[in-house]
Design a protein that fits this description.
8 strands, two-stranded antiparallel ribbon, Nucleotidyltransferase, domain 5, DNA polymerase, domain 1, 17 helices
């Protein structure tokens, strides 16, 4: 049983709650939403807590959430989320802007000994030794009334988050890593993280980058059309055209609607609605420099340097684990190669450079060497 919490369903109650919360240095926030039949998520619940109270706001009962949005935009308050990308997308869709002074416990956990993209349940289990229920994870949060058990589950996403936030903040401060994540948290306030530009939608289509340039050009054109239509009609992109259909279309490149009709998986309703448009996309697709680029370029490193890159990648992972940092958070093999080639990339700046990048650069330049100590690779 969690602590008592308020359920906010009136404008007066929302205004009063937000006024009280505005006096706090930090608040924890989570949302529940529905994203089955729409492109943009439908906000169903907002859970919010401060040090001394917790509440569930019911957006379906409120015509105006302005007091909540105004609260989130106050820069002096730290807004604490766990994996808050979709929550922040909802705020951006509703207001056209994003709050500042954000703290994401998933990001913080990745430099405090947890796996990359640690789930909320795993974090709470490790920090508080509390097993969160899993039975309500797939609840239809748009349904009313919600059961007491569902509401208890929902409020736990912000009440337990308070303790996790303080634990992680203490870990960061005591290890001197608090400043490491300032840039990471600042990036969460960048609207481009949450908006898919139609012209860039092709990058999200799995497998498209591996096609030949002419095929990729068709896929890019179709993906742009699909994304624009999905946004305009607020429909899931897969309800317009599935990814496997898009890939098949790019490979087959039908010249007319009759050819499209002969393709498996393109049902008559789809062809009636969008057949000619799809053919126009195929016909008008132009191969660009982007299409000519190989998705995975052959490495320009010599065999000897490729071996060095492999070794440096192993060192990077070893050093990350030794420092209690998720290796995936630090970087990948491409980041190591970029550092080797021209000293740039994610390992050359910010906290990643301070944690590991500087050491790797010293190995690359010959300032530091490698040896084997106690059967393990070590740095002199």
């Amino acid at each position: 049983m969690s602590e008592a919490f308020e359920i906010v369903t009136s404008a007066d109650a929302l205004e009063a709650l937000c006024q009280r919360l505005a006096s706090h240095e930090w608040i924890t926030i989570d949302t529940e939403f529905l994203r089955v039949d729409t492109y943009r998520p439908i906000l169903c619940l907002v859970q919010i807590a401060s040090a001394d109270e917790a509440a569930i706001i019911d957006p379906l009962a409120l015509a105006d959430l302005s007091p909540l949005w105004d609260l989130l935009m106050q820069p002096q308050i730290t807004k604490v989320f766990h994996a808050g990308g979709q929550d922040l997308e909802i705020v951006l869709n509703a207001t056209g802007q994003l709050p500042s002074n954000l703290f994401d416990t998933q990001i913080a956990a990745s430099v405090c000994g947890f796996n990359h993209q640690a789930g909320y349940g795993a974090l709470i289990k490790e920090v508080l030794n509390v097993d969160l229920p899993k039975a309500y994870a797939r609840t239809d949060w748009s349904r009313r009334p919600l059961s007491d058990e569902e509401l208890e589950y929902a409020i736990g996403d912000v009440t337990y988050l308070r303790d996790a936030y303080h634990w992680l903040k203490d870990q960061l401060d005591s290890s001197g890593r608090g400043a490491w994540l300032a840039d990471e948290f600042a990036k969460l306030s960048d609207p481009t993280r949450y908006r898919v530009e139609p012209a860039a939608a092709w990058k999200k289509v799995k497998g498209l980058q591996r096609l030949k340039p002419a095929q990729r050009a068709i896929g890019r054109t179709v993906a742009e059309w699909r994304e624009q239509l999905a946004q305009e009609q607020n429909r899931p992109r897969g309800r317009i055209l599935k990814d496997d259909q898009l890939i098949d279309l790019a490979k087959r490149a039908p010249k007319d609607v009759a050819a499209l009709q002969r393709m498996q998986g393109f049902h008559p309703g789809l062809i009636k609605r969008h057949g000619q448009t799809l053919i126009d996309c195929v016909t008008n697709a132009e191969v660009t420099a982007v299409d000519k680029e190989e998705h995975k370029k052959p490495s320009s490193l010599s065999p000897g340097k490729q071996l060095l890159a492999d070794t440096l990648f192993a060192i990077m992972r070893q050093q990350a684990i030794a420092q209690g940092i998720s290796p995936e958070t630090i970087g990948n093999k491409a980041a190591v190669e970029k550092l080797m080639q021209d000293g740039s990339g994610p390992l050359s700046e910010g906290w990643r450079y301070a944690a590991i990048g500087e050491t790797l650069q010293q190995v690359i330049s010959g300032e530091r060497g490698l040896n084997v100590s106690n059967g393990e690779l070590a740095i002199d």
